[in-house]
Amino acid sequence: MKAIIKIIITVIIILSINNNASAEQYYVSELMKITMRTGPGVSHKVISMVSSGDILTMLEYSKEWSRVRAANGKEGWVLTRFITKNRPLALIVDELREKNQELSVMLDKMKTDNLELSETREKLINLEKSYNILKEKSSTFLVMEQKYNEAARQLEEQKERVSTLESQLKNEDMIWFISGAGVLLVGIILGVSAKKEKRNSLL
């Protein structure tokens, strides 16, 4: 609210500066209509009526009557005491009212933008939190994946060793089997030979 008041005061100051800079422009005084005549005096014909707030361009100034040009292009004489260089209060009020409406619209837009900004900031905070959680989980997953790969590699090595040992064991069993069979066969042969020799000696 204070900001709006400051802006309104600034607008009034700017309008006052513009009034001083435009020395050629006059305004019809507050809350009245005055006649514009063909000459400087009430005996001259009325050619137009000008109202409070109408802008008049000064063509010829005098203490009693001044020749002016209205916004519609008409030229004539008006009583000098009914015109002023100062902008009428009613005109300033209308302009300030219009400016106030514009400022109200701007204020509403700023409130809306501020709300959207707050929502966006909250979304960014939540997104950052989600990202950090995902990042932490991802790093944990990578560590677990590395451990899994290492365990899988060791398991494969163990399988290969077991397979090799099983092969060696089978080979040793075969050797022992063959050796045992050979010993048994030799024993049988020797036994048969001994029986034959014994028979021959008896004969």
How is this structure best described in words?
A hairpin with an 8-residue loop joins strand 2 and strand 3. It is built from two helices and seven strands. Helix 1 packs across helix 2. The strands form two sheets. The chain has a five-stranded antiparallel sheet with strand order 6-5-4-1-7, with no helix packed on it. The chain has a two-stranded antiparallel sheet with strand order 2-3. By secondary structure, it is of the alpha+beta class. Helices cover 66% and strands 17% of the residues. It is a single-pass membrane protein. It comes from Desulfamplus magnetovallimortis. One of its GO terms (cellular component) is membrane.
Tag the structure with descriptive keywords.
203 residues, alpha+beta, SH3 type barrels, 5-stranded antiparallel sheet, two-stranded antiparallel sheet
Structural class: alpha+beta
pLDDT < 50 runs, ≥5 residues: 17-23
Write down the secondary-structure element order.
Answer: HEEEEEEEH
How much of the sequence lies in strands comes to 15-25%
- Total strands: 7
Query: Shape from CA axes?
Result: rod-shaped
**How many strands, which pairing sense, and closed or not: the largest β-sheet?**
5 strands, antiparallel
Average the pLDDT over all residues and give the rounded result: 75
Q: What is the first-to-last residue Cα distance? A: 146 Å
Give the CATH H-level superfamily of the domain at 2-94.
Answer: SH3 Domains
Q: CATH class of the domain at 2-94, anyone?
A: Mainly Beta
Give the radius of gyration.
58 Å
Summed up, the helix count is 2
CATH architecture of the domain at 2-94: Roll
Q: Could you estimate the helical fraction of the residues in percent?
A: 55-70%
CATH topology of the domain at 2-94: SH3 type barrels
